[in-house]
Structure formats: structure tokens, C-alpha cells
Design brief:
The protein is of the alpha/beta class and 276 residues long. The chain has one domain: Nitrilase/N-carbamoyl-D-aminoacid amidohydrolase. A hairpin with a 6-residue loop joins strand 3 and strand 4. The protein starts with a helix and ends in a 7-residue tail after the last helix. The relative contact order is 0.16.
């Protein structure tokens, strides 16, 4: 059986069980975008998430070097430009939803941003990072976003309410609360930081996401860069905070299956946790 036929058969099976498969693109920014997206589609994923600020690989600059700063800012891309169009075309061809991340061109400062593209290639959610790392490069050159919203994503296993928080947003409860109030079932987190092997805090970021999922009764999926950029370990957790999948340090696509019926049952049982 060809890969495309096998993927289609698996998707049909998962439709009956309402399983939502998320692919986490634990790849560097020079990866072949089409190949990564097609690989996820061939593995019957419904959606793929790329790491934070993928348009420049979350690159940094010397703050003492004005020309380096200017060059970094010049690399900002337009929401309607060629970079995002590449993801839209790939999503449409592979019939898979995509979270693409980028340094968004804006005045007076750019934004650290992400878009959710549906399987038809349409942008259905545009999210700007709210809690930027204003204390360090490169994000001291960025402006923060001011709100969070949710998209009701059409998938083969039914509609799924999806929200996005970008990297450090996951460390601030106001973002999770806003997404819960908006009805989020699954939250997608483009990331760029050590998740497990941080020399100062170890795996506290993973623990924080697990606690957030439990407190908010949501599924969460985090896509991180592999070594040598970060430490990989892209992961997903269920509504009870249980780890559903976790990658290694190396470049790979990590897959996680969310049972939508289980998520619904958890929300009904733990409804009081979602009162904000």
C-alpha cells in the first residue's frame, strides 16, 4: 500500500475514534518545509507545529552592533508575504493544518508571531507572543501582543478548538486563562528554549506545562528546536498532565495523539477547573 493510501486509511480509522494527531516539527530552520509537512501528512497527522520564530531560526544579534540589529530587523516578514505563503501552499497540497512561526514585520517594532493555517491553506488564527523576552536579545527589539483567541479548526475527526501560546507565554497564567475562557481544547506552543537539560532549572518548563494542562483541563503540544539550537524534547501532554509523547535531542518529527472523547470527558468531569 502506498504511503498516501496508508495515511488515508489510518485517518479514516481515527475519524471513528476521534483521535487528533499532532506532529511536532523538531527541526532547524534550514529544513525543507515541504518535505517536513509532507512527512507529517504521510503519517496521518492532522496538524503540524513548527518551533518559535522559524523564519529566522530564532536567531540573535550582538546588541552592541547597530548594523547587526538592523539586519535582524530587516529579516522580518509580512503576514501576506512569500514565507507564509510557502506554508499555506504546502498545507493545501498535503491537506494538513500547520502552525507557522515568524518575525512579523510591523511598525514601530516587529512581533514574534504565529499563524494557524487550516488544511485548505487558509489562515484561521493569527497570534502574537504576549510575554516577550524584553530583557534580552533578540526580543528586546520586538513589541508584545495584547490578546489571545481560539479558532474552531475543521478536521477529519470533527471541529477542534485550538489556541496558540508562544514559548514564554506558557509561564504566565493570564494567557492560559484567556484561552480557556475562549473555549480552547488543545493549545499549541511553538518554543525555543531548553526543555529538559537547562543548566539552571532542569526540566521545570516541562513540569510547568504539565501543571498548566491539569489546571486548565486542556491538551498541550510543544514544538522545540533540536540540538545544537536547543535541546529538543518536543512533547505533548493530556488534560490530566500526563505526557503523551516526547522526542529526543535530535532532529525529528514527534507525533502525539489526542483522544477528543477523552478530552471532552475530562472537561465535563473537571469542569470547575475551567471557571476563570
Amino acid at each position: 500500500m502506498a504511503k498516501s493510501e496508508a495515511a488515508a486509511a489510518e485517518k479514516e480509522t481515527r475519524m471513528s475514534t476521534k483521535t487528533f494527531r499532532v506532529a511536532l516539527a523538531q527541526v532547524l530552520s534550514d529544513a525543507d518545509i515541504d518535505a517536513v509537512i509532507n512527512s507529517a501528512a504521510d503519517t496521518a497527522a492532522d496538524l503540524i507545529v513548527f518551533p518559535e520564530m522559524f523564519s529566522n531560526g530564532y536567531s540573535k544579534f550582538d546588541p552592541r552592533n547597530a548594523s547587526a540589529r538592523a539586519s535582524w530587523l530587516d529579516g522580518a516578514v509580512d503576514l501576506q508575504g512569500a514565507f507564509i505563503e510557502t506554508f499555506r501552499v504546502a498545507a493545501r497540497r498535503a491537506e494538513i493544518a500547520v502552525v507557522a512561526t515568524f518575525l512579523e514585520k510591523a511598525e514601530p517594532k516587529p512581533f514574534n508571531a504565529a499563524v494557524l493555517i487550516d488544511r485548505n491553506g487558509d489562515i484561521v488564527l493569527h497570534q502574537r507572543k504576549r510575554h516577550i523576552c524584553f530583557f534580552d536579545v533578540p526580543e528586546e527589539a520586538c513589541a508584545p501582543g495584547d490578546s489571545s483567541s481560539v479558532s474552531r479548526l475543521d478536521t477529519r475527526c470533527g471541529p477542534v478548538s485550538v489556541g496558540i501560546m508562544i514559548c514564554m507565554d506558557r509561564e504566565f497564567p493570564d494567557v492560559a486563562s484567556d484561552l480557556v475562557r475562549a473555549g480552547a481544547e488543545i493549545v499549541l506552543v511553538p518554543n525555543s528554549s531548553p526543555l529538559v537539560d537547562d543548566v539552571e532549572v532542569g526540566d521545570i518548563r516541562v513540569a510547568g506545562v504539565r501543571a498548566m494542562a491539569f489546571q486548565s483541563v486542556i491538551g498541550v503540544a510543544v514544538a522545540n528546536y533540536p540540538e545544537p539550537k536547543d535541546d529538543g524534547h518536543s512533547f505533548a501532554v493530556g488534560a490530566s498532565g500526563q505526557i503523551l509523547a516526547m522526542g529526543s535531542k535530535q532532529q525529528a518529527v514527534v507525533y502525539a495523539d489526542f483522544d477528543l472523547d477523552d478530552l471532552k470527558a475530562a472537561r465535563e468531569k473537571e469542569w470547575f477547573r475551567r471557571i476563570r
